[in-house]
Specification:
The longest helix has 31 residues. The chain contains eight helices and no strands. α1 runs antiparallel to α4 and α5 runs antiparallel to α8. The chain is mainly α.
């Protein structure tokens, strides 16, 4: 498969999971404990993927110092952007309960939530394109991990959007646009960084991993523990093990 087409295709596939999850969350009343459990599973899946796929590759190509610096930089960028969006009303964008503000509660929160969902998905999608640069073919484990984590993200967030009174047009407009952006971000991860040295690609991979971990802690873990409590940690462990096993089977 042509690498440009491959990177775009798998970016769309992973982003499409957000739309599928959004449809489930908007049209089906899913119990809070189930949403929390699935979100915990997705958190474990992503933590494993960024540890054993992204950071491992970054370390091999750039060394510990560069990989660690990129990782911290990615986390800092995400944290700064997320702090600004939280002020604008997007703090609880991944929550499935009544935590999300409506437009009447906080004007402009709808746009902030949409932008927040976008920055959540961009690092993951860039990582897919970068994985092709690392190995010559897309990392199945990385794509699977992002897909499995995007399903509960879309489910939880859209359920919260519905409870905040947001229309179906808004919800599916947001997630469809983000799915498209994920495909383009994955393409850019391959096409843009293809001109750079393996060292730069590796450091960029670490930046993406840092942003992903910050996203998990800021938006996914709170939802996971809100309802599931001690069960959440078990689902995180299971998700981690599933992703780890997948990475070893396809590595």
């Amino acid at each position: 498969m042509n690498p440009i087409f491959e990177s775009t295709f798998w970016g769309f596939v992973s982003g499409g999971a957000l739309v599928i999850g959004a449809a489930i969350g908007y049209f089906v009343t899913v119990p809070g404990k189930v949403v929390a459990g699935v979100m915990a599973f997705g958190s474990g899946v992503l933590i494993s993927a960024l540890s054993f796929e992204l950071m491992e590759e970054a370390f091999k190509e750039s060394g510990l110092t560069a990989a660690a610096t990129g990782f911290l930089f990615g986390a800092a960028i995400y944290a700064a952007a997320n702090h600004l969006l939280a002020i604008l009303g997007a703090r609880n964008r991944k929550r499935s309960g009544t935590e999300q503000p409506s437009e009447e509660d906080q004007a402009g929160s709808g746009m902030a939530i949409a932008v927040g969902a976008l920055i959540d998905g961009i690092p993951e999608s860039i990582a897919i394109g970068l994985s092709i640069l690392h190995g010559g073919a897309v990392s199945v484990a990385t794509v699977a991990a992002i897909f499995l984590s995007n399903l509960p993200e879309g489910l939880s967030s859209s359920a919260g959007m519905r409870k905040a009174g947001r229309s179906a047009a808004y919800v599916f407009g947001v997630w469809t646009a983000i799915a498209v952006a994920c495909g383009l971000a994955s393409l850019s991860g391959y096409a843009v960084f293809g001109a750079f040295s393996p060292f730069i690609v590796a450091v960029t991979t670490a930046v993406a991993a840092g942003g992903m971990l910050a996203m998990i802690v800021d938006t996914m873990i709170p939802e996971a523990f809100a309802e599931a409590h001690h069960w959440a940690r078990r689902f995180v462990v299971i998700g981690f093990l599933v992703s780890f096993t997948l990475s070893k089977m396809t590595g």
